[in-house]
Amino acid sequence: MAGAASAAGQGSKLNLLNFAEQKIKMLHLTWFAFFLTFVIWFAHAPLLVHIKEALALTDAQIRALLILNVALTIPARIVVGILVDKYGPRIMYSVLLFISALLCIGFAFANTYDALALFRFLLGFVGAGFVVGIRLVGEWFPHHQVGTAEGIYGGWGNFGSAAAAMTLPTIALMFGGENGWRYAIASVGVVSAIYSLIFYKFARNTPKGSTYFKPKKTGAMVVTSWGALWTLILMNIPMHLALGMLAWRLSPAGVELFSETAMYGIWFALLVLFIVQTQQTWKVNAEHLREGVPEHDKYSFKQVGILNIAYFATFGSELAVVSMLPLYFLETFEGMSAVKAGLLASAFAFMNLISRPMGGWFSDKFGRRKSMVILIGGLAAGYFLMGLMDSHWWIPLAVLAVMACSFFVQAGEGAVFAIVPLIKRSMTGQIAGMAGAYGNVGAVVYLTVLSYVDYSTFFYVIAASALVGLVAVMFLDDPKGHIVEVAEDGTVHKINVG
C-alpha cells in the first residue's frame, strides 16, 4: 500500500507526549497554529467595552462588528480549501498566519470606526485556518487514528476563543493606560507573525516518502457524476443566501452599517458571483464527465452533502449558542450578575477540549456512521432539553444540561471531520472548506431565527433541524477498503480508509 496513510504509521494509540514520533510533533505544531487563528479571530470580544469607550461607539456599531467578524469566513473557507489542495498546508498556514497577523495589528491601531469595521471584516479570513490543518493532519495519520487526531486538532485549536477571553483583559491591564487593549490585541498579531515563520520552518505536508496528491483541476470542486454536479451547484446556494442575510442584518433593517441601496447592491453582486461560480463549476466538471470518469477515480459526493448538513447543525449551533448564552443566563435567572452569567456560559465552549477529541475517538473506535447517528441524536435531545429550561430550574442543573448538550454538539463536530479526510485525499481541503462554510451558514441562520423568537423556541428550532441532520446521517456510508489517488507521474496509489 502506498500513500500518506501507510507512511504515517500503524500504532493503535496516540501518545501525545511521544515527541520522537514525527506525526505527534506535526499534530502539536498544527493545533497550535489553529489555536492562534481563533485567538486572533475572537481577540476583540473580551475587549469590546474598552473598544467601545475608546472610539465612542454605539451599541449598533458594536453589533455590526460582531456580524462583520463572521461574514468573510464563508467564502474564505471555500477559497482556502481550493488553495490548500493545490499548494499544500505548509505554505498556506504560514501565509494565512502572517496575513492575519498584519490584519490583527491593523485592527488594534485603527482610529476610526470605518477602519475598525474594515479590519474586522477582513479578519473573517482567519477563520479559514481550520481547513488547512484538516488536510495536514489527514496526511499524517492512518485511518484508525485520524478521527482522534482531527478531534484533538479541532478541539484544542477551538479553545483559542476561550483563551482569548481569559487572558487578553489581563494582558491589557498589564500594558495599562487607555491604549492597553490595543497593545494586547497587537501582541497576538506579533505572536502570529513569529509563529508563521516557525510553522514554515518545521511543518511538512506529508511524512517522508509519501506523495502529496493534488486535484487534477482547480477553480471548483471536481465531482465524478452528473448527479453530484447538480447537487454541488444546489449546495452552493445556501452559502450565498447566508451572505445575503448578513448584508440584510447590516442594513437599516438591522444595525444600519450601510444604506438599503448598498444592501441591494451587495445582493446583486452575490447573484452575479453565484452565476460566475456556477459557470466555473460547470466548466471544471462537464468535460471529464462527458468523457466518463474511471472507476478508481470516483468518490461519493453524497458523503460530502451529508457532512455539510451535519456540520450546519453542530458547529452552526455552537457558534450561535456561544454568542447568546451569557445573555440567556443573565435574563433567565433573576439576580445573576453579568460576570457569573459569562462564566457559566463559558462551560459550553470549554467542553471543546475533551468533547471534540472524544467524538473523533468514538468514530475511530465504533464506526463512522454509528457515531454520527448517536451524536447527532444526542444533540437534538440536548437542545430540546435546553428548550425546557426556565427561571424555575436549579442553576447547577441548568449548567449540567448545557454541558451535556455541548458534549454532543462538539463530539459531533469531531465525528464529522473524522470522515472528511477519508473521502478523497486530493480534495480534503475543498471538502473541509465546504463543510466548514456550512457551519458558518448554520450560525447565520440560527442567529437570524433568534432575532424573531424567544429563547425556548430558538432551542427547539435547533433541535428540529438536528433531526433533519439525524435522518441525513443515517444514509452515510462507512468508509471501507481503499481510496485511489493518481500521482502527477501517473503512478496509482491505494490509501487504506477502513
Q: What would you call the structural class?
A: mainly alpha
Largest sheet: 2 strands, antiparallel
Which band does the percent of strand residues land in? under 5%
Q: Give the termini separation.
A: 13 Å
Number of domains: 2
Describe this structure as you would to a colleague.
This protein has helices at residues 4-7, 22-41, 48-55, 59-71, 73-87, 89-108, 113-122, 129-140, 143-158, 160-175, 180-202, 226-249, 260-291, 301-332, 338-350, 352-366, 368-388, 395-419, 428-450, 455-473; strands at 482-486, 492-496. The chain has 498 residues and is an all-alpha fold. The chain folds into 2 domains: 1-7 and 16-205, Growth Hormone, Chain: A (Up-down Bundle), CATH 1.20.1250; 298-498, MFS general substrate transporter like domains (Growth Hormone, Chain: A). A two-stranded antiparallel sheet has the order 1-2. Mean pLDDT is 91; it is low at 1-12. The protein has 20 helices and 2 strands. β1 (482-486) and β2 (492-496) form a beta hairpin.
